[in-house]
TrEMBL record:
Pfam families: Dimer_Tnp_hAT, DUF4371. Transmembrane segments: none annotated. Coiled coil: none annotated. SMART domains: ZnF_TTF. Residues 11-27 have a biased composition (Low complexity). Residues 1-45, 754-786 are annotated as: Disordered. Residues 1-10, 771-781 have a biased composition (Basic and acidic residues). Residues 79-151 form the TTF-type domain. This is TTF-type domain-containing protein. GO terms for molecular function: protein dimerization activity. InterPro entries: AtLOH3-like (IPR055298), DUF4371 (IPR025398), HATC_C_dom (IPR008906), RNaseH-like_sf (IPR012337), Znf_TTF (IPR006580).
Length: 831
């Protein structure tokens, strides 16, 4: 009832007028240590002074202790007489007060008339015998009303376990595939009741044990298929995944990767990924979607901004603004949280910059976009493209021009490029080269058969451009540039990529572009001429005068070679090389230059002790003054050790160095060097992991699921992204998964604690003796997830297989962080 009605607090007027509420009627009883209850009856409080929910426990404690019979006590004399301890032998139920001369409230002093005790006992229905019977019933808990109401047989408990595990297995399968749970019509008459219920039905069909206790064969209030139950189990999975992540991080440093996006319902949120090092391996793990401040996420999971050692964003102004952006806010809290602009995003900006600055490249990409609109405007044109490709492939196979085999000659289609899709331009150009004759056929069809004049003129203009030498030249030029940068783009998107290797790859890519600028023009002309000859495209004589197509009467005084080599080729390449230098400015920063001394390539040829000592000064919170003094000595021992060890001879980067150091136990020998390695590794390289999170979010929150709640969405996305952690929860015992059951029991305790009422976990456990309960309570101790036993057994198994007292133990350390996330309003869980 207190779930729906709030108890009215006593008013101040009531107190001033003398109206007071007795302490025994308080909704929340004061905690009492039963072991501290006074033994002497004279010191005991009246039982009515205790809370009603505590009285039976107090009575039971006194009965277990037995009567107070002080044998060696010097009893006071009254009129020359005093109490004789020998009466204890004859009447073993006597309880004598030590502080006064009475063994009950009013006392008994007519010891010459002991026959009164027999009359007091009386017949079977006497007050004394009724009280004795009540005492015996109180000690026999298995016959009490509360126990009888909550008592469950092993059969009922096993049936509940079967239902719970069936729901857990079905939900795990749906989470792993980012599949929806609910159906449009979940009634029993529906032919498809949604993925979750259909999976339960499939499990029932294959297992008779499950079939006998689930769905229509289960109690109406304990079927374990309600939407609230589904959401709570999803949250359990998500919390267990996050628990494993935070356990791996521990009290270590980490990097922060954040990006912002909107879902199908136009709601904006930030995806947060943590980058850290565990056992020498770099990991990037998704921790949740944030709709407000990131600080709230840190507070919820006990993280600290002082442990952030790297920030990585995509360059948006609200992320890295100098005054009010996230970068500045974190830097104000922690000066060691160095910011690194996403390398993959910078690479994309390099490509886009050329497409927007050079007039020839601008015209090329704009007409390419028009081509996509014309060819891919309808399903009919797409089918024509596929049929044309099929005919040409069959003809080529018949003539022996191409070979057949597994994976060869696959069906292709044009792919629309996007400014924010890394590598999409390169894929589009590759498809255009492969499907060039098929694209020409579709354009000719649109010109001759389409009724829409706009489409006809667009197709005609694009057709003319595609058959020009200018188009073929830019096609092969951009294809080569994007091919060189695509390898860099793929490498930058790796989760375990480190900052030094990324800068090395950028440097290599820039050198390749420089080489192509110097020696690549003639080979490019040969490819262009070969392509033109293959598809009957008119070529130009490089020694003829160049005529500007927009100003044909104006003499340019330059040849075609001069135009294509200097005005087109060299200009585009210079723009690319200059953009690389401007965008990737991190390579020249002092922090990165110092980190380069950690590189293990070529037997640590870049090792520089002074740079590493300087690098330690960038992290004043990680290296004390005393450690920096001993760091110089440790560096000397470190470089001598690794240069003499052949296992460190072929390492390619600091990621390999950290991994091998842990494998060979050198991270314990040189802890300061390994600490510096971890600081270098947590610096983010790219936000590709965050982008993948948004891809998973779009799978979970689709157009058909655009009303999914934020907490449920967050749990589903965590499980869909961190599939490896989700899979590590299995295999499990047939009837129980310890972690999920532990969290399930804790969540129920949190729910009832927040509502101010006693938990219902007693419905789920067998009863035991008082001594067993007391022993289990005394063995308990705090853990990460609440209350666990000293043998590291989960709270679920402790409640299920053992016993515990009726007084609840509330994990208050969890209540402050997860009570709003685990609203276990699952009354159907009661058996």
């Amino acid at each position: 009832m207190e779930k729906f009605l709030k108890r009215k607090e006593p008013s101040s007027s009531g107190i001033s007028s003398g109206i007071s509420q007795p302490s025994s009627t308080s909704s929340m009883p004061m905690e009492i240590d039963l072991n501290d209850l006074p033994w002497d009856p004279s010191e005991r409080k009246k039982i009515t002074e205790y809370h009603p929910n505590q009285r039976d426990e107090i009575r039971r404690k006194y009965l277990i202790r037995g009567p107070c019979q002080p044998r060696g006590h010097d009893f006071p004399r009254t009129k020359g007489r005093r109490f004789c301890p020998s009466w204890f032998d004859q009447y073993d139920s006597f309880a004598k007060q030590g502080a006064s001369d009475a063994f009950v409230t009013e006392g008994f002093n007519s010891w010459n008339k002991t026959d009164r005790f027999g009359r007091h006992v009386g017949d079977v229905s006497s007050f004394h015998n009724r009280a004795l019977k009540n005492c015996e019933d109180l000690m026999r808990q298995d016959q009490s009303i509360a126990v009888a109401f909550h008592k469950q047989t092993d059969i009922i408990k096993n049936e509940h376990r079967i239902r719970l595990n069936a729901s857990i297995d079905a939900i795990r399968y749906l989470l792993n595939g980012a599949l929806p749970f609910r159906g449009h019509d979940e009634s029993e008459k529906s032919f498809y009741r949604g993925n979750f219920l259909e999976l339960i039905k499939l499990i029932r069909e294959r297992d008779e044990t499950v079939r006998n206790v689930t769905l229509q064969n289960a109690p109406g209030n304990n079927q374990m298929v309600a939407p609230s139950i589904q959401k709570d189990i999803v949250d359990c999975f998500a919390q267990e995944i996050l628990k494993s992540t935070f356990e791996e991080i521990g009290d270590d440093v980490f990097g922060l990767l954040v990006d912002e996006s909107s879902d199908v319902s136009k709601k904006e949120q930030m995806a947060v990924v943590l980058r850290y090092v565990t056992c020498g391996v770099v990991k990037e793990r998704f921790v949740g979607l944030v709709h407000s401040a990131i600080e709230s996420l840190f507070a919820e999971y006990g993280l600290s901004l002082t442990k952030v050692r790297g920030q990585g964003y995509d360059g948006a102004s609200n992320m890295r603004g100098e005054f009010n952006g996230l970068k500045a806010l974190i830097m104000n809290e922690n000066k060691s949280a160095y910011y690194v602009h996403c390398f993959a995003h910078q690479l994309q900006l390099v490509i886009v910059a050329v497409a927007k600055k050079h007039h020839g490249a601008v015209n090329f990409f704009e007409l390419l976009s028009v081509l996509m609109n014309v060819v891919c405007a309808s399903c009919k044109r797409k089918d024509m493209l596929i049929e044309s490709q099929k005919e040409k492939v069959e003809k080529a196979i018949g003539s022996g021009e191409i070979e057949t085999g597994s994976g060869l000659n696959q069906e292709l289609s044009l792919v629309r490029a996007g400014d924010t899709r890394w590598g999409s331009h390169y894929k589009t150009l590759l498809r255009l080269v492969d499907l060039f004759p098929c694209v020409i056929e579709v354009l000719q069809y649109v010109e001759n058969s389409c009724d829409n004049s706009t489409s006809v003129w667009q197709a005609r203009g694009v057709h003319i451009y595609l058959k020009s030498y200018d188009f073929v030249f830019y096609l092969h030029l951009m294809l080569h540039i994007l091919g060189v940068t695509n390898s860099l783009s793929q490498a930058l998107q790796k989760k375990d990529q480190d900052i030094l290797n990324a800068i090395s790859l950028v440097k290599i890519t820039k050198e390749k572009l420089q080489e192509f600028r110097v020696d690549g023009f003639e080979p490019l002309l040969e490819k262009v001429s070969s392509f033109c000859g293959k598809y009957d495209i008119e070529t130009v004589n490089m020694e003829d005068d160049y005529v500007d197509p927009k100003r044909r009467r104006h003499k340019t005084n330059i040849t075609h070679r001069h135009y294509y080599e200097y005005d087109c080729f060299n200009t585009v390449m210079d723009m690319q090389i200059q953009e690389f230098g401007d965008r990737f400015s991190e390579a020249s920063s002092e922090l990165i230059l110092c980190m380069a001394a950690l590189n293990p390539r070529d037997l640590f040829c870049d090792f520089d002790r002074s740079k590493l000592l300087k690098l330690s000064e960038f992290y004043p919170d990680d290296f004390s003054s005393a450690e920096r003094m001993s760091f110089d000595h440790e560096l000397g021992l470190y470089i001598s050790s690794v240069q003499e060890d052949e296992r460190f001879a072929k390492l390619k980067g600091i990621s390999d160095l950290a991994r091998v150091m842990v494998e060979k136990r050198k991270h314990a020998t040189f802890p300061l060097v390994y600490r510096l390695l971890k600081l270098a590794l947590v610096l983010p390289v790219a936000t590709a992991s965050v982008e993948r999170c948004f891809s998973a979010m779009k799978l979970v929150k689709s157009d058909l699921r655009n009303r999914i709640a934020d907490d449920f969405l967050n749990g589903c996305v965590i499980c869909a992204i961190e599939r490896e952690a989700l899979a590590q929860m299995y295999p499990r015992p047939h009837w129980a998964h310890t972690n999920l059951r532990q969290f399930w029991a804790e969540a129920r305790l949190l729910k009832h604690a927040a509502q101010g009422r006693s938990p219902r976990t007693s419905r789920m456990r067998p009863q035991g003796s008082n001594s067993e309960k007391r022993r289990d309570r005394e063995k308990g101790k705090r853990g990460w997830g609440g209350w666990v036993t000293s043998s590291k057994e989960s709270v679920w198994e402790s409640q299920w297989n053992k016993t515990q007292s009726s007084s609840a133990v509330y994990p208050m350390n969890l209540m402050a962080s997860r009570d709003h996330r685990v609203a276990w309003a699952a009354d159907g869980l009661r058996n």
